[in-house]
Amino acid sequence: MTDDENRVAGLVLAAGGGRRLGGRPKALLPHRGRLLVEHAAEVLRAGGCAGVHVVLGARAEEVRARAALPGCALVDNPDWEQGMGTSLRAGLDALAGTDARAVLVLLVDQPGIGPEAVARVRRAYRSPRSLVSAAYEGVRGHPVLFGAAHWAGIAATATGDRGARAYLKEHADAVALVECGDVAEAYDIDTEADLTHLE
């Protein structure tokens, strides 16, 4: 692993309030004997990310109190109710003061994505200008990797629940797709029906 590869940080977006789940924050949902936020942070670590940042919002104090997140940098997003874009901006702001050359972003509500998908996306990093996305049968999904050269542009366009979607669409020619459909399932835990995915 090169020195640059050692500087791919992990970022979990875990601030949402679970509006369609009756106001249960997804970070606090149980899965395989631990909370979803713990699971996501461990997936990034196991996938080879150097340093994991976790953005908290809804019931942040409860998440801090209940979740075991050793070694993670916890980032508060007071604007979490305005959507995922604010969490992405908060995470990128926190990373701006580090030596990270890229960040690999994972959503807290996608437990079907494990360390192998993270590792594949991370291995596609080439430079701070890298843009990499997992793909499922050729369709772009998560996790995604943003080289540091793109952070300012992403932060400027991350609004509402769209996150980096607009930026990635605008720079589609530069995005390297890494097929992960054989090692991951990209479902979201959004509704009561989706809770059947949790174990």
TrEMBL record:
Residues 10-173 form the MobA-like NTP transferase domain. Pfam families: NTP_transf_3. It comes from the Bacteria. This is 4-diphosphocytidyl-2C-methyl-D-erythritol synthase. It comes from Streptomyces pseudogriseolus (Streptomyces gancidicus).
